[in-house]
Please model this.
Amino acid sequence: MSVHSNDSMNEMSNLDLETPEKPYLDSNELIINMGPQHPATHGVLRVILKLDGEKVLGTECVIGYLHRGVEKIAENRTYAMFNPYVDRMDYVAAVSNGLGYCEAVEKLMNVEAPPRAKYIRVILTELNRIASHQLWLGTHALDIGAMTPLFYTFRDREEILKIFEKYCGARLTTHAFRIGGCQYETYAGFEKDVKNFLTHVAPKIDEYEALLTTNRIWLERTKNVGVISGADCIALGVTGPVLRASGVKWDLRKAQPYAAYSEFDFEIPVGTNGDTYDRYLVRMAEMRQSLRIIEQAVNGIPEGPIMGKVPKVIKPPVGEIYHSIEAPKGELGYFIVSDGSTQPYRIRVRPPSFVNLQALDMMVRGLLVADVIAVIGTIDIVLGEVDR
Amino acid sequence: MADEVKSPAPPPPPEGEKKPTAEKPAAAAPAAPAKPAAPAKPEGPVPMPWTSPLVEKYRSQYGSGLDAQTYLGQNYFSVDRSLIPDILRLLRDDDQFDYCVDITAVHYPKREKQFDVLWNLYSYARNERVRVKTQIADGASIPSSVSIWPTANWLEREVYDMFGITFDGHPDLKRILLPDGWHGHPLRKDYGILQQDQEWVQINLGIESGQ
Model:
């Protein structure tokens, strides 16, 4: 407001025009809801935004729309019966959920899966990591306005789902592992399918990168957007690619190896700026590292049994255990308390999405509304896991 | 299966798994039924005292208020409630437990102090985990650790939501997963698996029952 007629100046005489800090027009803070039914919130997430024009002053996440009481269900199921339920938390990385749960119960029972089962677990889990990152890339890019990557990633993710389907009959909520090992032996042609996939998908990742990595619009939308420092990540408990993109070289597969990860050679990609672009680069690099792991695993897969010595009735001794794995989204932990019966006394799931989502507020303050979409995408949440 | 279990009583094992327990007493009925059960229990590993310079340090500082044990290679402190949050702050400031992995609780309705509250900590520098446990009574509160680890904010809200444990000094202690007006805390053992806040469902969803 630079030009005023005398009349309007008189009307506004109650405004203090002398001090320059006070604007002619009072801009009210605006409170608006983003979600819960919003395609860019990746499920039913409601974010209450406090805005000054387009600028975000603060946010509050309202979650729980998908709460099914998974931890309560666990207390009313046997250990084996609860196994399929964990797939329904992070449903785009169901294999990882199952791996964490089975290993936690195995640890509590003091049994170990045989080497062949461990290798199968690694191959499927890393395939699932790629599938999860592909789905993240497609939807994240779509949110920002790039439509093509979605078709590319879904086309290639299909190949992974086909392997899952051939292996265990399910594509998404696989229930691939059992406590003590694996239920199914690999099908004839499994190794060939996996090797085919490896040669097929490696150039495809270059294709995604060709679309985005040096794309000017992509750079504008992601560089210096949603910056978070490594120290803030640690304070907020943020793990996974978000932590690594902020320069903290920490991956549970290396720090506290589980399954057969200590036998494979791979690197932990890290970023430097902790912005949305670095998180993109880290995930792209992670997909390539996963390919490396799968290649080593499928070439070195040992012969032998796939099921450890586990009694028919799973009855862990009285005690408690915490076991966590590096899920595609971060540290996925299971804290199990056993009272010596066939049903767990308490299972606590430490969900990476839930904890990482808490950093949203810090990451979007001062940004524009459109950036909130980019940041929600870059944290890579799955609401099924946030709400459990 | 176990769906029908309504409230406190621990749910019976499912049909198929009753067999082994039913067979045993039949075989050993005339003799001493306690004997076969007794050697079965200590079969698994048992918690051992945990010794390390870290434990010595805290023991000399806090004495009897603290017990350190290790089970299946995992270390934990069982501490008196009065040591919270001092010991948590010391663990972060002096011993680099800078990452609060998780805060949770376990309900033991038969105990006098009904709740175990647990802090699951990790140190990036030491690559080491430790759990801190304390017991509190129903209705008692516990100091918040949001000022120590900001991540405790949502984790404590979830514990409050699910167990009804209040955290003193939490900046915004309210429900997180369930709606604000909900009655009851579902992860308590006396909350049935099919139980719901019918009144809330009727008022807010306009249906007779959520089931």
Remarks:
- Chain A touches chain B through 50 residues (CB under 8 Å).
- Chain A has 16 helices and eight strands.
- Confidence is low (pLDDT under 50) at residues 1-13 of chain A.
- The two ends of chain A are 50 Å apart (CA to CA).
